[in-house]
Design a protein that fits this description.
Helices cover about 15% and strands about 25% of the residues. It contains seven helices and 25 strands. Helix 1 links the parallel strand 11 and strand 12. The site of fe (ii) ion (FE2) has 7 residues, from loops.
Length: about 450
């Protein structure tokens, strides 16, 4: 069991630990507060209010627990705090007596096309020195909410300590997760299909510990869902749940794209774990089946950005698509496409599997920037037309962004730009033309 202060168990009998919050509704007026009590269930209550130490409101949650092989979890609490006001700082308290603990969070601005907001993007975090470094660097950026692209604790890598490592990861990330929402997505390390241990129910620890507001977006599973926050519509997809045509995830996404209103939320962002475009030797082509299922919609609905993890390196694409690919005729390679998203892989949070340092050579034309270093990304939505994006590598600290791009909104800027374009512009393939797409 890790003994470092970064994983410390809070003082006091049965003190709440592993505190984390996530958005609790579709539009950002609710949070779900989650925590674990180790010894006994204790109260599942959140006391909260707008003034420090003055908790004039109370919400009641539920308690669950689970077993995994020979591990028995603590008591896991989930409490929906709703009816909140936008743009407001709330203080909250959980636990009782000497063991009570206090935190705070800030609600986002109301849904508005010009609401500015800053997201952090973190993936494949784990619980190493590099994981801590990523968290410390992220904290200096002013990020208000984390979009997490899967592979949380890597507990499954610690053969006989799975549950204990889930607990220690929860304590490590609490420094951020207790104070701002993390929008959760799962990765392959959350599957935990272990028939050899008698554990055949997939995603068991993840689903018990990390809640998502999936019902608010009419999803039938916590594994895929959507939230709207400030000027962004964020769609979370599960790489390891069925997604081919006619599956529940496929139906849900088809309908969710129809609910996107770019007049209200101009920024359309998709999260997944396994990247659709990846020129690293690690996990090469693993996202191809989801690309075949969903890329057409990404282009049709002009998704702005697709963030993924999984590959332990950083890569950003140009706007390209391969929607004309078919097995008998037509293009069989990605081409520049102004309606296509930019694909970004940020699987470099810092887990103990190490970096994926072998990229395919030469770098394909669609790949704009790639590097095997630990880090995280920041997406600063300025208004309906512009966003400033940067990737920070841990080695440089937060003052030296290693990759910086200004993104123009796919909906609002294309409305004026489209008139100027000739049809055949989309078939240019030279690198200079790719670059000009920005
Ligand atoms: Fe992964």
């Amino acid at each position: 069991m890790p003994k470092s202060e970064w994983f410390a168990i809070p003082k006091g009998y049965n003190a709440p630990q592993q505190v984390h919050i996530t958005q609790g509704d579709y539009d950002g007026k609710a949070v779900i507060v989650s925590w674990v009590t180790p010894e006994e269930p204790g109260p599942s209550e959140v006391f909260y209010g707008k003034k420090e130490k003055q908790y004039d409101q109370k919400a009641e949650g539920t308690t669950t627990n689970y077993t995994f092989y020979d591990y028995k979890s603590g008591y896991i609490h989930h409490c929906l705090v709703d009816g909140l006001e936008y743009n407001t700082k709330y203080y909250y308290k959980i636990g009782s007596g000497d063991s009570a603990r206090e935190f705070w969070f800030e609600t986002p601005p109301a849904i508005d096309p010009d609401a500015s907001y800053t997201f952090g993007i973190i993936g494949d975090l784990g619980q190493t020195f590099n994981s801590l470094s990523t968290l410390q660097h992220y904290e200096k950026t002013g990020g208000q909410t984390v979009l997490f692209v899967g592979d949380l604790s890597y507990a499954d890598r610690y053969e006989h300590d799975d549950g204990i490592r889930w607990d220690s990861w929860g304590r490590l990330v609490e420094r951020s997760t207790a104070y701002q929402p993390w929008i959760w997505n799962s990765g392959n390390h959350e599957i935990e299909y272990r028939p050899d241990l008698g554990e055949t129910s997939t995603f068991k620890p993840y689903l018990h510990r990390y809640m998502t507001p999936y019902l608010a977006s009419k999803s039938s599973s916590p594994m895929w869902y959507a939230v709207r926050r400030a000027s962004a519509h964020i769609i979370v997809l599960s790489s390891y749940s069925p997604f081919v045509k006619y599956t529940p995830q496929w139906w849900w996404l088809k309908n969710e794209f129809k609910r996107v209103d770019r007049e209200k939320t101009p920024w359309l962002i998709v999260l997944m774990h396994s990247p659709m475009y990846n020129s690293n030797e690690a996990h090469y082509m693993e996202g191809e089946s989801m690309r075949a299922a969903f890329e057409k919609w990404f282009v049709k609905y002009k998704v702005d950005l697709v963030f993924a993890g999984h590959v332990h390196a950083y890569e950003r694409s140009y706007r390209i698509s391969n929607v004309n690919y078919n097995i008998t005729s037509g293009n069989r390679y990605p081409v520049p496409d102004k309606s296509a998203p930019v694909y970004i892989t940020v699987g470099d949070g810092g887990n103990q599997e190490g970096l994926a340092s072998r990229f395919n050579d030469p770098q394909p034309d669609y790949s704009a920037f790639r590097e095997a270093s630990y880090g995280h990304s920041i997406l600063q939505l300025e208004n309906r037309t512009h966003a400033v994006y940067r990737w920070n590598r841990n080695d440089d600290g937060n003052n030296v962004p290693a990759d910086t791009v200004v993104f123009h909104n796919q909906y609002w800027t294309s409305r004026t730009r489209r008139r100027r374009l000739k049809k055949n512009h989309f078939h240019l393939e030279k690198l200079e033309d790719l670059i000009s797409l920005f």
